[in-house]
Specification:
Length: 437
């Protein structure tokens, strides 16, 4: 009998397996497809690889601002695709090496829960003192739009579509819209809601909408996609039917928990339409079975899954966990980037709070780098930061200073004594803290 049997080798599963081995627990890791899960193979990593290519192209196009004149620049998209595959393969090999080094037993196959301690894989049964379900999520697909593709298929295209239509203005739709526009696609987005990025602070989302327009990305809000045939997307807006002609239609309306409902029902694991039901320690209704990451239907982020696994390990070992899941940072790799941690302003409407902002256009490093779009926004209460929101260059890096300050429960006065090097983008945060009362 293994100490842990982990179903799913995405960031939640394989990171937990490695951490458990450091604690001398025996581990069996089971993966139906590829090591690294969606994040590595069809999500975060391929997308960020293309994001770097798009970022370089944008830099090249504005090189004349810096007195650098380039002519005859050619884009080899086949090489882009090849490099994306190389990056993924390198990281896959890295995970396999670590699993071997730490002596994690892992097998490829579909795992089925048999009881509270047993799973079946490839017609063999395996037992564990604890079972952790880390089976991730899968794209939501709308009925009547079967010809549309998912983000996985879009990242496997061999050429850049001339016209790309996207259903959904969440994080996935936003990132891919910005990437493929920079690579040369004409992009239009159809969003059912009245705003983009519904989980973001509305002020940031509104500012991002204006940046999308400046990139010639058309966004149709309060619009419902109804049909797609012969490269024509029909959508309903203001009680009228409108059409978009496109070479490729991407469905990016979110993801849903991926788990075996029949097996859960059979052994008595509770679940809802959102995902497997868990308590604050990620235990299911069966105490020896845990569920982490996307399959719980909670925050669908790779790092949330990873730290969920760490929390489970603490719980199994009887250790205290200081992980603050309410301070999970979110990042959007758009142009410009967005990032946030803690509460949005909308979530604070029923309590007294203060908002302070500092702008990129007042920062020396941002001006020197021609990266003057955006701002840092802090939401304060009782002399502490309860929400931090950034839209601008390197937001995904800057947000972590604020996450640390919030996690360590620092007062505004203590934060104001932190020296920020000059000239750096971090001074935007320092200036924001200075004006806080």
């Amino acid at each position: 009998m293994f100490d842990l049997v982990i179903i799913g080798a995405g960031p939640g599963g394989y990171e937990l397996a490695l951490e458990a081995r450091k604690k001398n627990l025996t581990v069996l890791l089971i993966e139906e497809e590829k090591l690294g899960g969606t994040c590595l193979n069809w999500g975060c990593i391929p997308t960020k690889t293309y994001y770097k290519h798009a970022q370089l192209l944008r830099e090249i196009k504005r090189a004349s601002l810096f007195g650098i004149h380039l002519e005859g620049v050619q884009v080899d998209f086949a090489r882009f695709h090849q490099r994306k595959e190389e990056v993924v393969k390198k990281l896959q090999d890295g995970i396999a090496f670590l699993l071997q080094k730490e002596k994690v037993d892992w097998i490829k196959g579909h795992a089925t829960l048999i009881d509270s301690h047993t799973v079946e894989v490839n017609n063999e049964t395996y037992q564990g003192k604890y079972i952790i379900i880390a089976t991730g999520s899968k794209p939501i697909e709308l009925k009547g739009l079967e010809q549309a593709i998912t983000s996985q298929a879009l990242l496997d295209l061999q050429e850049v579509p001339s016209k790309l239509a996207i259903i959904g203005a969440g994080v996935i739709g936003m990132e891919l819209a910005c990437i493929f526009q920079a690579l040369g696609s004409q992009v239009q987005i159809v969003e059912y809601m009245d705003c983009i990025l519904p989980s973001a602070d509305k002020e940031l989302a509104k500012r991002m909408l204006s940046y999308l327009k400046s990139q010639n990305i058309q966004v149709h809000l309060k619009s419902k996609a109804t049909a797609y045939q012969n490269n024509i997307l029909q959508f309903e807006k203001n009680n009228q039917i409108e059409e978009i002609s496109c070479d490729v239609l991407l469905q990016a309306v979110g993801r849903k928990a991926n788990f075996d409902e029949q097996a859960c029902e059979k052994i008595g694991i509770a679940y809802t339409a959102k995902g497997i039901t868990v308590n604050e320690h990620f235990q299911t209704s069966i105490p020896t079975v845990y569920a982490i990451g996307d399959c719980t239907g909670k925050l669908m982020l790779a790092h949330y899954a990873t730290y969920s696994g760490y929390h489970v390990l603490h719980h199994i070992l009887g250790e205290e966990s200081a992980i603050r899941f309410d301070l999970t940072p979110s990042c959007v790799f758009s142009f410009p980037e967005m990032a946030w941690v803690g509460k949005t302003e909308e979530e604070c409407k029923d309590e007294p709070y203060q908002v302070v902002k500092s702008f990129y256009r007042s920062n020396g490093k941002a001006i020197a780098s021609e990266e003057q779009e955006g701002f840092v926004k802090l939401i304060l209460k009782d002399n502490k930061i309860i929400g931090a929101h950034i839209i601008g260059y390197e937001a995904s890096i800057l947000i972590h200073e604020l996450a640390v300050l919030m996690h360590t429960d620092q007062s505004i006065q203590a934060m104001q004594n932190i020296i920020h090097a000059h000239p750096t983008l971090s001074e935007i945060i320092g200036n924001c803290l200075k004006i806080a009362e």
